[in-house]
Amino acid sequence: MSQVLVASNRGPVSFSLSEDGALAMRRGGGGLVSGLAGIAAARGEASPDVLWVCASLGEADRTAARRSPDGRLDLAGYETGGAAVRMLDIPAGTFHRAYNAVANSTLWFVHHLLYDTPRSPHFDAHARRDWQSYEAYNAAFADALARDAAPGAKAAIQDYHLSLAPRMLRERRPDLRIVHFSHTPWAPPDYFRLLPDDIGTQILLGILGADHAGFLTERWASAFLDCCELLPGARVDRVSRTVSCGGHVTRVGVHGLGVDGTALRQRAAEQDVVERARALREQVGDRQLIVRVDRTELSKNIVRGLAAYRELLANHPEWRGRVVHLAFAYPSRYDLREYREYTEAVERTAKQITDEFGTADWDPLIVQVNDDYPRSLAAYGLADVLLVNPIRDGMNLVAKEGPVLSERGCALVLSREAGAAAELSEDALTINPYDVSQTAEALHRALLMPRAERAERCARLAAAATALPPRRWFADQLAALD
Ligand code: G6P
Q1: Which family does it belong to (predicted)?
Q2: Domain boundaries in the chain?
């Protein structure tokens, strides 16, 4: 098999500095890393030779990258789970502007429809400087990929952080075959046009530098084509799903991402998960459990989810004392004020619910804002109801992991705006994520659902969730380049 380069902002591991100055390592979070980690680690005849190029996300990562030969963490003896990883030492200021100001505060907001438009976005001279850093950051990836790639290799460039890199790489290495994959939704044209015209154009042209542009669902692929139709000089063919621009043709494809059921079940059988499950069960007794697991992320809609739980307890007092909501929201993107404020809003709303309904022997809500992966897996196992209510989401792997690990069969309350709804909506209770009352009623129906029906639906959800394991998802993207 030929060489495959993977490029993404976040790599499989990142580092922090402990108090004694030593580097501590942890697994990266989020759907992208979950999808790719197993693939990059697999070696052997059936697996391509993968090199994963990622950015240093902070000072500790930069230290680790500098201590490794040319940023190759695996060659320096760091435990990368078997993957060959090159971590790029991008200057802190450039990284901060590219990642926080452009990728996360602008592109993420555009694709997830997160702006409060009377106030933002606001593209001024600062935004231009931020954009230049985004260009420099993308160029750093393109340079590294161009240098590391064997002749004719395939490059799989991931996500909105790297939308310019495909074109930049093609300019440097026309011999390579390039795929770009978006893990997010794609904005509809009227919303995409919030971006300054030249920036919007560069983003589209950047992705169109790839031979293949992949999306998680039909809906996001078709929104991308809608945006390309507005691009001067581009020709969109809806039947062959191609975009021709400047003599180059990009095929657009849909590649759903699911979970590796076997690996997930194995991980969940480990001792740390079993212990946490026991502790959680002791804490909540035999009450029914409504579980959610997210990054503390604006698009995940955690505050409205809590408001729906509040409305459930207010409108259906029969559940008081008989149900507990476990909401695990691990910290995310704390450099951004919006995320810090959002976390405060989550904590405030949670406290209001506890103050209003809590009694001496019943805690209605357990909210935890810290990262504990084994505890999340334990919660999936115990869930009676899983709440996944994002405003908008590329796929949402929680909606897939939960049913796979659920022991008694959980009911899934799922936002119709999550990509996963395209595959799971028949057996989930689907909701409009903005409709708090509808969400509350869906929770009520889910709690009332007969055990047998819950278990049957859950089994079908688990089957759908594991139908497209990461290995297949990735292989499909690469095959689209042949
Ligand atoms: C989403 C994005 C990923 C990102 C992840 C975690 O899933 O599509 O690219 O890695 O969120 O976000 P973070 O900013 O912590 O990497």
Answers
A1: Belongs to the glycosyltransferase 20 family.
A2: 4-257+471-480, 261-466
What single DSSP character describes residue 359? B
Each residue of 152-165: b (16+ CB within 10 Å) or e? Answer: ebbbbbbbbbbbbb
| DSSP sequence for 232-245 | TTEEEETTTTEEEE
Query: What is the percentage of the chain residues whose pLDDT exceeds 70?
Result: 98
Q: 68 C-alpha vs ligand 1 centroid, how far in Å? A: 25
Distance from Cα 60 to the centre of ligand 1, integer Å: 19
pLDDT tens-digit map of 246-265 = 999 999 999 999 999 999 99
Q: Decide if 4-257+471-480 and 261-466 have a common fold.
A: yes
Atom 5 in ligand 1: which residue has the minimum CA distance? 30
Question: CB within 6 Å of ligand 1 — which residues?
Answer: 10, 29-32, 159, 183-184, 332-333
How far does the centroid of ligand 1 lie from the alpha carbon of residue 239, in Å? Answer: 32
Residue nearest to atom 8 of ligand 1 (CA): 183
Question: What local confidence, expressed as pLDDT, does residue 26 receive?
Answer: 85
| pLDDT at residue 44 in the model | 57
Highest CATH level, class, for 261-466: alpha beta
Q: Which CATH number is 4-257+471-480's, of 3.40.50.2000, 1.10.1040.10, 3.50.4.10, 3.40.980.10? A: 3.40.50.2000
Residue that is written with structure tokens 């003599």 in the block: 247
- What residues contact 278, with CB distance under 8 A and at least 6 apart? none
Question: Which segments of the chain have a pLDDT < 50?
Answer: none
Please report the pLDDT score of residue 21 as a whole number.
Answer: 82
Q: Give 32 Cα–ligand 1 centroid separation in angstroms.
A: 6
